[in-house]
Amino acid sequence: MEILFVLLILMIVGSIIALETKDLLAAVISVGTVGLTCSVAFLFLAAPDIAIVQVVVEVLVLVILIRATINRDTTAISGDREFFGMAVSIVLLFVIFIFGIKVFNDLPQFGQPIIALFSDAPSNTYISRGLKDTGAANIVSSVILDYRAYDTLGEATVLFTAILGALAILRSKARKKQKETGNK
Question: How far apart are CA 110 and CA 112, in angstroms?
Answer without folding.
Answer: 6
